[in-house]
Amino acid sequence: MAIARGAPIGAKQSSVTVAPAKRDTRLDVLRGLALITIFINHVPGQIFENFTTKNFGFSDAAEAFVLISGIAVGLAYGTRFEPGAWLQTAVKATKRAFTLYLAHMITTFMTLALFLTGAWVFHRPGLLCEINILAVLTNLKAGIPSLVLLGHQIGYNNILPMYGALMLMVPVIFLLNAASPLLALAVSGTVWLFAGTYEIAPHNMLIEGYWFLNPLSWQFLFTIGIVGMMHVCRGGKLPQHPVLFAAAAAYVALSFAWVVGQLWSFGTALAALGLPPVLTGFDKTFLSLPRLLHVLALTYLVINIPAISRLLRRSADNPLTILGRHSLNIFVAGTILAMVGQVVLYINNHDRIVGPVFVVIGIAIQFAYAYHLERKRKLETGGRNRLPNRTLVPVPVRIDRSRDRR
């Protein structure tokens, strides 16, 4: 609380309430849905996992989350971006990347602690063989530094390192977009193609292979979100055409039939064409073209079907809106809860009742946490927005000159 010193007697006090900018809740709702889906997928072996988006198309919640994040970054940073303020933008993006790194460290070491505790308390050493933990425990001298340096990622703890790397690319994306949106997309697409064709990605330090989610590949989807959002913010419109709509709908339908009908054998025929796997495969690490096209086709349909757009536009106090508004905190909490769930299911031999019950409880806890964060946010912004506006009012003072004459 700020207290004015030497406030004059008779001064009037009033308060000015700063009206917050109106927020498009559709992004928050979509992000909230993605967070719930990611949580369910991160507790494998329970019935709800069979009903998430990965079972009905080539892409899953991770693609949606990255595209939404790109749109949000374009909205938050890009609308005020000027090439002359590049350094300021770079500093902000770097700070955000460091925050994501710290969040990843929290979830990583919490995961280690949970699995170690479960193995010790319940006498289930098999837990230590799950999700890439054993490689750390058998070589702690190299394992801990590898975790800290992002050279080893525990299973289901892969998104935040990739997202942090994408944030470090934001200043470059903005500069390219300032020169030409088409240039930004062309450069980004070229990097995606070369990374996928020649398998260029950050390498692991403890075991062979690459990061599970290659930032050099996923930056293309992130860039598409940023460039598209900044184009709209400048008054532009996304292309709308019946042919595009029909093509998007047809591709989504094909993807649905392919995944539900288990038509993966056709993938062999695509591979026989001799094209790079990034163009014909379904690899998640390098974000193969079929996955990329699927999330873009879905997005195009969502944007161009008014009924869906209206359905997603919820009030600011809607539970999904609140959940998506606090996405990083909820993601961290959801990841830790999912790791608890994996331990619980393992020691219960993936009981059919325990799994679904835990998922329901876990989702409820995340909503409760989101409401707590929202209440805290409102208290903090309420204190900042009510700025004291003190107007000085002249007060007549009669001076007794008789004392001066004495």
In percent terms, what proportion of residues is strand? Answer: under 5%
Strand order of the largest sheet: 1-2
Could you tell me the radius of gyration in angstroms? 26 Å
Largest sheet: 2 strands, antiparallel
Mean pLDDT: 89
Task: Name the helicity range.
Answer: 55-70%
Find the count of extended strands (DSSP E, 2+ residues): 2
Would you give an account of this structure?
The chain has 406 residues and is an all-alpha fold. It has helices at residues 25-41, 61-76, 86-121, 134-137, 140-148, 159-179, 181-197, 215-233, 242-260, 265-271, 277-280, 289-304, 306-312, 319-325, 327-347, 354-385, 402-405, and strands spanning 12-17, 386-391. The protein has a two-stranded antiparallel ribbon. The protein starts with 11 loop residues before the first strand and ends with a helix.
Question: Which terms would index this structure?
Answer:
406 residues; mainly alpha; 3% strand; globular; disordered C terminus
Summarize the structure.
Helices cover 63% and strands 3% of the residues. The protein is an all-alpha fold and 406 residues long.
